[in-house]
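User: I'm preparing a small set of examples for a lab meeting where we compare how different chains pack in three dimensions. I only have the primary sequence for this one, and I'd like the structure in token form so I can line it up with the others. Please keep the answer compact; I'll paste it straight into my notes.
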Amino acid sequence: MAIEDIFRALEEQADEEVNRILHAATVQADAVEHEARDEAERITSAKIQAADAAVQAKAAKAVNAARLQVKRDLAKVRDGAVEAAFGEAAARLAALRGTPEYERVFTALAKEACAGLDAECEIQVAPEDADLARRVAAGLGVDSTVTPTLDTIGGLVVSTHGGRVVRRNTFEMRLQKASAVAGTHVAEVLTS
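Assistant: Understood. Below is the structure token output for the 192-residue chain.
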């Protein structure tokens, strides 16, 4: 029976060795599986973060593009409104020519343009205003030559000293200055 006891002892020892190896393999497999899951979670998290960042960047770009387009559209509407208003004003001013109001305005513009002149001047006007310009210059006591070659809806251009000093006092110049100021004010109102 001694051999049977030896075989049984060897068999038990072999079973224990197998169980120990299986247990170690199971522990190592669990560790590998746990490490693989952690790595998969890290990779998934990194991919989700990268996708989220890309989506946020794309959304921010779309929002910025939309804001820029709104600003462009608003500027276009503002510019169109200012342009239309000043176009209407120009048409009304052009319709003044030949009226007593126009003569008063023309006289005021001429007085302003000729103020402080100490030399003979050239007054450029539209052909329709040549006679009026001569009368107004004579009334103001200005030594001048009237040149009826100016393309304008109203007003005059006065130059002295061989053209070195030029004073533009036309409706178009007044409207242009007012338009720039009005455009700024309209923009402030629309953006506040």
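A couple of notes for your slides: The two ends are 107 Å apart (CA to CA). The helical segments are 2-94, 100-114, 130-140, 171-191.

User: Perfect, thanks.
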